[in-house]
Predict the 3D structure of the following.
Amino acid sequence: MVRPTISLALIFANLGHLYVHMFTAFYFIIILSIESAWELPYHQLIKLWAPGALMVGLAALPAGWLADRWSAPGTLALFFIGLGISTLFAGFASTPLELLISLTGVGLFASIYHPVAIPWLIRNTDRNPGKALGFNGIFGSLGVALSALVAGLLVEAFGWRSAFLLPGLIALATGLFFLWALLTRRIGDRLPRENQAESKGRSHLSIFLLLLLVMFIGGLIFQSTQTVLPKVFELRAGNILGTGYAEIGVLVTAVYTASAAMQLVVGHLADRFPLKRLYLLMLLAQIPLLWFAADLSGGMLIAITALMVIANTGALPAENLLLAQYTPAHHHGLAFGAKFTLVFGAGPIAVTLIAYFHQQSGEFHQLFTLLALLAGLGALTIALLPRKEKVRSTLAS
């Protein structure tokens, strides 16, 4: 009998993280071409992603529940296959309504990954969960980075439809291979093990709720910056490489590639130092960076936004381990589902804010100022958490 291998599970978990961030960010580059092709304004087209962004959040909770009750690998098979099919449909859309429906499907299936794959990854990691999450986080950051580059190059070379069609085929093929590996038992799952939150659920509830508030703030910052950076670079950094789709894609790629390594560094530190301290440092760093990004342009804007994204995504390994620490192991899927319902539920709020500020002023100064204030609120909330020992002692199962 073929035994499940941890290495194959890690490969699929990392590929999934790459895909989910690529596929939910493709549209932010593709939209710049559709503006011309369909002769529709940016603020109208960006709203087509709002239902999809909403689904990424709303469907995360039932996705986590399904993984807890049924099968985490089985639910991930739905993620790969559904994401591929929805993206293919987006490539064939000929009206705003068809594109809206397709993007909603992308959001629906994208919602599966985080609440299912992250606890699955933690369960299937023998040691150093922080390092494993940090390495997995690199693929998420590369997904955002490559989405801009891949979409920009495909749009320039073959038109905007190709930026949906080719990735959709790749995701579908990956899903079929994942399904084969699951059916032949080359991948599987481990049973959740008890942690401290099993016996201290009531005392940890208030901490869990505070974490959810901060995670929502972090999600709103991430969703806002990921969505708006291509447009901001078009407005304020066109003198660097130009304002073509590929050139803007290169700038966004540079910013998110720079942030990738930071997650591995913080993940490594999360196995050795108090999680609260690491998490707080990442939140504090975002406040001045977001404030400066409100007014900068050119090369300084690129540098500041790179540091801003590094701080935002660098917080994720500590954040995810804190969440695992304060929730019962057999409810990890549900807990991470609640987190990502809020984190990705911030997506439509971000889209609404971006559309509003662009319609009012044609710029995003007020958006970045608001995000800086929210980062301050998040840091203050984390500062109120009690001190806790290192994660190694709390996740020693």
